Amino acid sequence: MGVRVLCLGACYTIGLGTAPEWSYPAQLEARLDQGIGSIVGDVMVYNGGVRGKSIDYFAGEMASLLSE
Length: 68
Fold this sequence. Notes:
Layout: E1 3-7, H1 11-14, H2 24-40, E2 43-47, H3 55-59, H4 62-67
Parallel strand pairs: 1-2
């Protein structure tokens, strides 16, 4: 199955103002894939950023976010 990571946050997580491949989650996925991908298999990092929302917003949404 590999490794799955969910990144939560606001504009910095989304990568607002940058190309999608330069967002924090995309960069994290690339580095994890290079570092541990050969050991653990497929590495996927999901960008769960929502513009203008703090971590408090995500607390109530955690169950649905993880099921996705």
